[in-house]
Request: fold
Amino acid sequence: MTNSCQTGVQVFIPAALNRPTHTLYSICMLVQPTNQEWTVNRRYSQFLQLRKDIQHTLATPCASCANCASFSRAVSRFRFPSKSLLRTNSVVRHRVSSLQDFLKLLVGRVYNDAPKCSSCGHEIQKMMRPFLIRGAQPINGSILSKINKSLSLDSYAVVDQPVVPVPDPTTPPLLPIAGRELFSASKSSSKPIFTHSQSSRGKSIFSRSKVKLSTASDGASTQPNESEDPIMDYSDSDEDGDGRKYDDQRCYDEGVPLEDAMKQVVLPDGARATCEEVVVRLTTMWAAYHLEEALSSLPPERLSQQANFLSIDEKEYAF
Reply:
C-alpha cells in the first residue's frame, strides 16, 4: 500500500562532497506550511543508522495500526545503497540518488495528516527530526528558530497560501514561494535543484576562517568553537537523544585550491550544473570556503560555464 496523502514537506539531495576521509551528502529541506528552507549535511553511516533505528521501531508494529506493517514493508523492500570498499565518484553518485529516494519515502510516510499510531507516528518523527534539522543552514531568509519548530507541526498538509513567517529585523523579507529558486520546480520534477539564492542575497552565513586538517574517522568530526560559528548558534528545547548523533556536519579540512575543491562536489547521474552552482554547494559542505570570497575569485564568465568535470572519477577513496 502506498501513502496517497499529500505532504507539505519536500526533500532533495542535490550533491555530495567526496573527501579522502569521508563523504558528506547535502540534504535540502522545504516545509511549505511555514515557508522554511534549509540544508543539512549527513554521512552515509548516519543514513544507515537511521534506517536501522526505524526498522527496529517498526519491528513490533501496533496490532491495530495498518500503517505500521505497510511502513515496515516499504522500508525493508527499499533498495538501500550497500556498503562499498571504495568511495569513487560513481559510487557516491549512485548513493546521492538512492539516499534521496530513501528520504522521500520516509518524508512521504511520516509528514502527512494520515492517522498514525505512536510507533509509526511519534516515535519515527523523534528519529527523523534531528536527522533533518540539526546543523541547519537557512536559505532564502528562513529563520533558525522557526526551522527548529517546522517538523513539530500539528499538520503537514499542503496549503494554498503558505504562512510567511515574520522575519527578524536583520533578515531580508522572504519572496513568494513560487519565485524562490531552490524548490521552484519541485512539484513537477523529481530531479534535484540548485539554488542561486545564497549568492544573490546579503552576507553569507558561512565562516571565513580556515581551520586545521581534520584527521577524524567517519565516526567523529572536528567541531568549531560554538561562539565563532553562526550555524551552531541556536538551541533546541526538545530533549531528543538522537540529536547528538548529528549536529553540525560540515567538512573542516584545510582548504585546497578552489578549482580542486569544486572537483570533489559530486552530482547525481544526469544532473547538470554551472560552476556557480557547484560553488554554492561546496560552501554549504566545506567550512574553509566562504561563498562571496569563492565566487569573487572566479572570472564572471567562468561562473556561468557548465561544470564538465563532475562525471570523471579522478580519485578512488578507501574507507
Summary: Confidence is low (pLDDT under 50) at residues 166-240. The CA atoms of residues 55 and 76 lie 7 Å apart. Strands lie at 9-18, 23-31, 36-42, 137-139, 265-266. Residues 89-110 form the longest helix (22 residues).
